[in-house]
Amino acid sequence: MLTIKDRNIYYIVALGVLLRLIIFTLFYNHIAEYPDSSDYYILAEHIQKFSLEGYNGWRSPGYSLFLLLGGGKLRWIIVFQNILGIIALALWYKTLINLKVPRKISFYTTLLMTTFLHVIFYESAILTESITLFFLSWVVYLLSKYSMYKLTFVTGLYLSAVLAILVAIKPFYIYLPFLIFGMWLLKGFQGRKNIVKLLLVFILPLFVYFGWSYANKLHTGYFVSTTFLGLNMAQNCVYFAEKGPKEYNWIIEPYVEYREKSIEENRDVAMSIWYAYHQGAFKDTNLSFPDLSNEFGKYAKATIFNNPGDYLKQVVFTSWLNFWEPGIFWKYDEIQFGKKFFLILWYVQKSVLYFYRIIFIGLIPYYIYKFIVDKKVKKGTLLFFVVFSASVLQAMVTYGSNSRYSFPFEFIMLISVTYFFARHFSWFTVLKDKIVNYR
Question: Containing domain of residue 24, as a range?
């Protein structure tokens, strides 16, 4: 998959390994578990027993299967996540090279990304983000390497397989094959043979998505990739929850009550309906979680349909804007010493991330224009729309934990901004003449 003739890759990997050894050996010898972690353990136990009997359909199987690789030893899971994180560094570098960004610029950009604390700390957590980042990095690497206009059967199936794994980890990514095919179809209709080859990209991701949805149908009664779907939709109604149909007052009243409590107590307002659920506000309904979430979904659809202006305001000015907020998941109190150093370093890195994100947002009109006027979809444009589409779709579907949604896309933002500057500014590309060729 990767050439190792380029010595820059050795330097990048060496720095990645060194930073992880220093942090996890000297400062943070801790496996971070969160409320979500237990959901993956439960599904892993079901998979190990080859039985989904009694499973509530909360999670898709990708990360739980990954947990089984560790044989029940969480320390091994963290080691595997670190290894994947280090491989991802090489994929980022190769992606920049594939985009014809000058080698030295590609090298220093990747070195910058290698130092980001939140990437390293996610690798110490029992959460999906680190392996999601790896497989998305793999997908982006393939998109930068292969032309969608010259796709072969083998490369199409290869891309399809990696996309399928990504969908198994997080069903949200089912949008990617549709995005790839849709952009190509709008800008590159070149005959039946090419369409057939590109349709290969759909096969395995759709099989995984619908296969798991069918498994949920058999065990929960609902054909959904996750039974969280209805509850996630209801989260988008948090600021206009009281405007729902009266028939859903049994949802509205506790929802509004816990929203106001969340505001008073300075808690995450997006999680209001979760607080209500966990504190037993809906226990008198005697509904199972899949049934309750389904009712939440019905309530959300009716409320959004009756209040499109409030929904649009929520999507654009809250959910979408929050997507661009960098975040870090760490057990800060578990850092053995140097807490202030790590905090200051994260604030500096957060400022860098803001810088790149602001530029990326500023490039939205440019890339939309490029897509309209170009006769073909350029690789840089495709990568831009991978992120932009995710920001819009995530905002439309749910509200909450937005930094976790955007985290796996950050490397694409940095690559896209670097690619743009390398192609359009001579002062940026002048380094090309001074490159030391390591091949």
Answer: 1-131
Q: How far apart are CA 340 and CA 335, in angstroms?
A: 10
pLDDT digits (tens, 9 = 90+) for 36-74: 999 999 999 999 999 999 999 999 999 999 999 988 799
pLDDT of residue 3 exceeding 60: no
Which tokens go with 321? Answer: 């804007």
Asked if residue 345 belongs to a domain, the reply is: no
**219 within some domain:** no
Q: How far is CA 5 from the centre of its chain?
A: 31
- In angstroms, what CA-CA distances link 176 with 127, 288, 390? 22, 32, 9
242-250: list long-range contacts, CB under 8 Å, 24+ apart.
Answer: 243/303, 243/306, 243/307, 243/310, 244/299, 244/302, 244/303, 244/306, 245/299, 245/302, 245/303, 245/306, 248/295, 248/298, 248/299, 248/302, 248/303, 250/282, 250/285
Give the residue-averaged pLDDT of 295-305: 97
* Count: domains in the chain: 1
Q: Is residue 162 part of a domain?
A: no
Q: Per-residue confidence at 404, pLDDT binned at 50, 70, 90?
A: confident
